[in-house]
Amino acid sequence: MTRWGEPFRESDALATAEVVDQAQIAIVVIDRFSLLRYWNPYARELFGFVGGRDYVGLSLLDIGIHESDREHASQLARRVLRGEPWEGTFAVLKGDSTWIHVRAQAVPMRDESGEIDGITLIAREALRSGRVEEQYGLLERIGSRLASSLEFDSTVRGVAGILVPQFADHCFIDLYDRDRLVRQVSVHAEGWTPPANSWFDVGDEVRYPERHFVTQAMRRLETVVTSDYLFENSPSDRSDRVSRQVGVTSAIAAPLRARGEILGVLTLALSGLSPRQKSSYGGFDRDLVGAIASRVALAIDNARLFEEQRSTAVAFQRSLLPTDFPALDGLTVAHRYLPAGPLQGHGHGIQTQVGGDFYDAIPLSAGRVGLVIGDVEGRGPHAAAVMGQLRAALRAFAQADREPADILRELDEWVRQLGIPDSGGGVWIPSVSCLYMVYDAWSRELSYANAGHAPPLLITSESVETLDLEVTDRMLGVRAKGGSGEDIVYHQANLRLPLGATLVMYTDGLVDRRPVGGKADPERALARMTERVAEVADKDVDQIAEAAVHSVPGVLDDDTALMVVRTHSEELALREGWFPSEASTVGAARHLAADTFKEWGVDRDQAELACLLVSEIVTNVVIHATPHPVHREFTGSGVLDSETPIDAAGGGADEFDEDWSDLLEAVAEEDESAEDPADKEFLLRLRRGANAVWVEVFDHDLRLPRIRSAAADDEGGRGLYLVEQLASRWGSRPTPDGKAVWFEMPMQAEVREAEKDDDE
Q1: The pTM is what?
Q2: Left, alpha or beta for 681 (phi > 0: left; psi -120 to 50: alpha)?
Q3: Of 45, 52, 197, 497, whose CB has the highest number of CB atoms within 10 Å?
Q4: What does the buried/exposed string (b/e) look like for 376-400 if buried means 16 or more CB atoms within 10 Å of the residue's CB?
Q5: Are 350 and 344 in contact (CB under 8 A)?
Q6: What are the CA-CA distances from residue 349 to residues 150, 296, 316, 559 (Å)?
Q7: Is-contact 540 490, C-beta < 8 A?
Q8: Tens of pLDDT along 319-376?
């Protein structure tokens, strides 16, 4: 080679490959399909290519471009392939899992004919050279990052991830919690961690000395840069010593202020942790960090307001759902509710998402349980309010022992009264899916009606599969939306569950989760959930519920309700017997009850009270039983009876009146003259649960009982009053061919606190 300033001799000319290999800048060549064809050694170092791996033919996106910048990189390629050069910044995850920001220039590469057949990408690590255009790009990236999230933690940590290590080696964000300044973020370059009890850690209360530069920044409400007096007024000697050891050379403190209120302070520092061309901040850096701080403060304030609004909305939603269920004989229940994530509204910004998903387990007569899962169409406070009203109405209908199909018919009417005016001058009425089931643990029979809801999963000892529901009708509220005026008929069906069966009831938010960057696939999600549930099928209901709600990955765009119900027969027993409706059978029914209660271990006093109530109810049945059985059919248009009893005056049937004191002798005489005594009979059914017994009496009389107000000199009229006073609960319900009167009694007498004190 000749001396400096003299031209190269031909023999000294360097090959192009040598120049490219020695260049301290990354050079990458990709073809028209964005596949890697060439890179120089510096590109391997910059992007952190894993040694030994062959990257030829891989996509440009495979060099580690961040998920949020992939569309940006794809647009880059399309633009350059049209013949336009491009320059910009994007984030890259290196092979060693560290983040960098890369400043790149891309130009089209042409063949001999002038056609574009690829792209040449020239890149270097951004933000460490101190170039002004790169710092403006940093401000743009931070603004974009802040606009992409309203979650507090991701907001502050995202900002720190952009600033370190490209613009700073240390980043701290301290925020006020009432009167205390608390460290929220502490991020350092190269994975470095300050020694314990030196610098303030996340969660610590931060106290700066009076003359510290951070204190001055917050007091003056202006950004402060310091390089010469870094080690004066340190919070502690240990903090000062660590700062010197790590080689801190310059720092910036910028107050975080939003809407006239100071929220805290952002502090950045340079040190010897990472190599860079500049070792101190200047006036331009101060202005840049001040602009960043103003954006960060506003984002933090918005995130706090949003989280407060969201927590209020979720608390409101959860208050409308049951937090716990009482002990249910023959059933073990677990439930989950997952609120949806923030919703990106079209033209309305980020919105808090509350919804109308609901579930319930309702104790019914004689130990039966009503199980419900449903989903109100739409999102927002109105959907949640409709859900709350709907659930309250359903509970009222259910506890009145209405049949499932009858309840859905009533709920359909209820939903159509909850509409709100829409922008078109009409009324918007939500559609509601609802599956209501009544489970009898003693017979394992499940009676249900379904308004367009997905069937639950059935877990047995052999398999996990979708429960086969032969009845599925349209969702609640659709009649009004269709405007056709047609009647919606809700049907009812019964099935019998296998021993030890478990039901997984869920709303569609669980299987409609959207993979990041993809579309929801409910069928695939259901298959995935089924597989995951099968893996824990032998676990308890809480473990099954956890497995189900976490079985489908992705973004939760809709709220989700889930209830897992496991059946069992432990501590359950049943005995029943048919008796003719004759005065002489009252004693026989009572004798059956007494023997049964003794066998079941019912407390003696409780058993005597229960037998007394059995006598009262059976006596009423004997007196008022209808001579000829009638059949009641529950249809879509109401309850149809095959025969309507006529009273002595020729009028319609009255409510059941239990004044029987002077009628037993007459009943006995009628029994002797009756043509077919077999037509007059009743069923006495006794059930035992874990802590209570239930008594049911079934007959063919359609009239439901009522409590009379007996006068002081009346000999009768107090039977049902005794039942109400002595039983834990009592009631009556219609059946397909008559009615059932029931009461509940605890197996053991409750010991009052006063009695305990007297005994002591």
Answers
A1: 0.63
A2: beta
A3: 497
A4: bbebeebbbbbbbbbbebbeebbee
A5: yes
A6: 11, 18, 22, 19
A7: no
A8: 778 888 888 999 999 999 888 765 444 333 444 566 788 999 999 998 999 999 999 8
